[in-house]
Amino acid sequence: MKSYQADQLDDKTVYKLLSGSIVPRPIAWLTSQNSDGLVNVAPFSFFNVASANPPLLSVSFTADKDTLNNLLATKEAVVHLVNGDNVALMNETAALLPADVSEAEHFSLGLEPSKVVQVPSLTAATVCLETRLFKHIPLGETGHLVLLEVVHFSFADDILDESNFHIDLDKLNPIARLAGNAYAGLGDQFELIRPK
Fold first, then answer.
1. pLDDT given for residue 62 in this prediction
2. For 78, what's the count of Cα atoms within 13 Å in the CB-facing half-sphere?
3. What distance in Å separates the CA atoms of residue 57 and residue 71, rounded to the nearest whole number?
């Protein structure tokens, strides 16, 4: 095996090894607002479920970003899941824009009022998870981990079967982040019976 000691690698190499090997990763497409109400939209792939009780999501930042600053200021964000229909729009919002420019306005993204939080939701999303900041943990010199508590769930009608709360994965059509410019859909699925 090719092996490396983490503390002997530079930050870029560590990032490449992590993001290239821990795949696929779900994408959190976040809307947040600054204290003046300017809406920021940005994707993050260092993201996952952290807990079901309380319902927590984790999002990591490798540097101070507008989204992080907004979260720390207003304590709210909406996490949208990325699918085959909105992945191109999501990619546009990864552009580096000045802090005083709203990606929602710049890219003409539709917004609608959220159900619980003040931050608006994206109309292009089929899953919206309204969140409040649960915990902020600084990591090293420039990193940050935030835990976001989900306070409201919204699903497109055809995605969720309310009789049993099952999510139709084909209709969800999630897109995952790989490395570099690569993304992936679900691909082949299989089942394994969990041992008793």
1. 86
2. 29
3. 14
